[in-house]
Design the sequence.
C-alpha cells in the first residue's frame, strides 16, 4: 500500500465545495486524491491553511487526509503571494513527515511552486518525488518561475504533463531533453457528467433553434476568450452563421456586468442556480479578499480589466456573449449538453477537464487539446489562437449536424474508455511504481559501486602488505 504526499500549496480541494470549477487545481487534486484513496493508497494532501479555525488534520475521504499547513497569515492567497512562504510550507511538511510511522513512499507536487516543498522533502528525508507541470514554459509567468521549472526538470524523478503538446514543449527546454516525462491526463467523473441534451435547453431556458458555442475557462489573457469571440465574429462574417457564445466559469466582477451584450431572448429563465445568485456569493467573497494580500487585490484588478476588454471586443465585433460565472455541480452537465459545440482554443486550458466533460456529455469539441480530442473523430484539432480555423470548423459542424452528433457519440465512448478518474489514478500509480523501481535500482547500483570500491581498497591494501 503506497503512502503518498500529494502537495497542492495554494489550492485546497475544500475550496471547490458547492460549485465545481473543473479546470481548477483544487478540483484536480481532490479528484486525484479521492481515486488514489479508493485504490487503497494512503494519501495526505498538503495545502496551505487559509482560515485560523481549520484543523491541522482533516479526515476527508476514505484513506485521504487533508493536512492544513500553517505557512503565512491566514487568508486566501494565489500562487504568487504564496511564494515567500513556500520554504516555511516545506519545513512544516518535513517535520510532519518525520512524525508519521514509515514516512511517505513518494511525494507528488501538483503544481510548479509545490515542487519547492517536494524538493525539501527529498533533500531532508530522501523521499522521491514527481511534479505535474500544467503550463508551457512561456506561460509560467515570472523569470523566477521559468528558472524553477528548469530546476525541477533536472531534479524531479519524473515530470508529469497532461498532453503531448506540453511534453514536446518541455523537451525543448534546457534540462528537459534528459528528464523522464510521463503523460498522465486529467479525468472526469461519470457520476457528474452524462448526456442530457433532450432536456438541457428546457431546463436552462435556452432557445432550441440557436447555435450555441460553449467556452469554459477563467478570465485571463492566457485563457484565450478573445479568440473565441473573434472566431464567432468570423463565423458570421465569412460563413453567414449566427452563433451565440456562452462563457462558463469566468467569474464576473460586478453585479451588472455579467453580459457582454443583452441576451434576454437567450437567457429567458434559469431554474438552476442563476448567475445572479452566483454573483452575490462572489460579491461577499470579493469584499473579504479586498482586505487580503496586496497581490490578491492586484489580481482582482487585472481580472476586472480583462473582463472590460473582452466586453468591449464583443460589442465592437457585434458578438453575443454571455458570461455565466461559475455554476453549481448539478447544472454543469446541462450546460455542456445544451451546447452544439464546446471550444478549447488555448493550451493554457491547463487540465483539459472541460474538454473531457464535454465529451462525456456527447458534445463535439473544437480545440488544441491533443490526446483527448481525436481530429475528425471526436471533434477537430486546430492551432492555438487561430480564429479563422475556429470559424471554419464551427461552420462545418453547423452545416453537418449528423456528423456533429457522431463526433459527440465517439467522444462519449472515448471519455469512458480512457479518461475516468479511476483510470487516470491507475495510470498514475503505474508511474509511481516505475519511479520507485528506478530509485531502488539506483540505490542498489550505488550500493554495489560502494561495495566494489571497498573491496578494491582492501585488495590494494593486501597487495601492498605482500
Sequence:
Amino acid at each position: 500500500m503506497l503512502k503518498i504526499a500529494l502537495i497542492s500549496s495554494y489550492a485546497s480541494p475544500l475550496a471547490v465545495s458547492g460549485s465545481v470549477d473543473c479546470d481548477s487545481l483544487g478540483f484536480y487534486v481532490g479528484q486525484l486524491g479521492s481515486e488514489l484513496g479508493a485504490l487503497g493508497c494512503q494519501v495526505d494532501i498538503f495545502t496551505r491553511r487559509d482560515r485560523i479555525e481549520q484543523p491541522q488534520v482533516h479526515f476527508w475521504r476514505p484513506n485521504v487526509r487533508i493536512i492544513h499547513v500553517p505557512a503565512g497569515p491566514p487568508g486566501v492567497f494565489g500562487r504568487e503571494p504564496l511564494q515567500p512562504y513556500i520554504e516555511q510550507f516545506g519545513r512544516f511538511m518535513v517535520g510532519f513527515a518525520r512524525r508519521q510511522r514509515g514516512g511517505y513512499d513518494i511525494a507528488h507536487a501538483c503544481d510548479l511552486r509545490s515542487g519547492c516543498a517536494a524538493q525539501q522533502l527529498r533533500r531532508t528525508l530522501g523521499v522521491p518525488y514527481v511534479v505535474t507541470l500544467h503550463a508551457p514554459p512561456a506561460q509560467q509567468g515570472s523569470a523566477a518561475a521559468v528558472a524553477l521549472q528548469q530546476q525541477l526538470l533536472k531534479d524531479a524523478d519524473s515530470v508529469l504533463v497532461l498532453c503531448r503538446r506540453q511534453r514536446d514543449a518541455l523537451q525543448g527546454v534546457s534540462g528537459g531533453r534528459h528528464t523522464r516525462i510521463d503523460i498522465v491526463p486529467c479525468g472526469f467523473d461519470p457520476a457528474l457528467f452524462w448526456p442530457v441534451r433532450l432536456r438541457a435547453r428546457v431546463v436552462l431556458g435556452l432557445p432550441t433553434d440557436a447555435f450555441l458555442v460553449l467556452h469554459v475557462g477563467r478570465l485571463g489573457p492566457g485563457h484565450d476568450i478573445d479568440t473565441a469571440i473573434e472566431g464567432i465574429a468570423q463565423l458570421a462574417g465569412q460563413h453567414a452563421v449566427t452563433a451565440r457564445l456562452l462563457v462558463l466559469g469566468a467569474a464576473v466582477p460586478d453585479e451588472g456586468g455579467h453580459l457582454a451584450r443583452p441576451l434576454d431572448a437567450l437567457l429567458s429563465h434559469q431554474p438552476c442556480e442563476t448567475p445572479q445568485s452566483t454573483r452575490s456569493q462572489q460579491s461577499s467573497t470579493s469584499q473579504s479578499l479586498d482586505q487580503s494580500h496586496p497581490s490578491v487585490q492586484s489580481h482582482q484588478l487585472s481580472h476586472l480589466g480583462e473582463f472590460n476588454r473582452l466586453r468591449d471586443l464583443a460589442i465592437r465585433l457585434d458578438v453575443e456573449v454571455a458570461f455565466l460565472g461559475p455554476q453549481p455541480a448539478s447544472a454543469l452537465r446541462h450546460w455542456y449538453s445544451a451546447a452544439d459545440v464546446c471550444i478549447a482554443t488555448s493550451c493554457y486550458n491547463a487540465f483539459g477537464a472541460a474538454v473531457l466533460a464535454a465529451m462525456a456529455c456527447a458534445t463535439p469539441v473544437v480545440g488544441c487539446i491533443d490526446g483527448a480530442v481525436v481530429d475528425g473523430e471526436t471533434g477537430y484539432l486546430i492551432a492555438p489562437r487561430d480564429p479563422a480555423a475556429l470559424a471554419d470548423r464551427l461552420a462545418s459542424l453547423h452545416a453537418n449536424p449528423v456528423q456533429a452528433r457522431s463526433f459527440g457519440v465517439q467522444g462519449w465512448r472515448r471519455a469512458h474508455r480512457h479518461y475516468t478518474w479511476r483510470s487516470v489514478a491507475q495510470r498514475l500509480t503505474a508511474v509511481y511504481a516505475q519511479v520507485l523501481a528506478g530509485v531502488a535500482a539506483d540505490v542498489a547500483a550505488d550500493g554495489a559501486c560502494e561495495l566494489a570500491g571497498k573491496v578494491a581498497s582492501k585488495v590494494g591494501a593486501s597487495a601492498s602488505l605482500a
Remarks:
- The first strand starts at residue 3 and ends at 7.
- The chain has a mean pLDDT of 83.
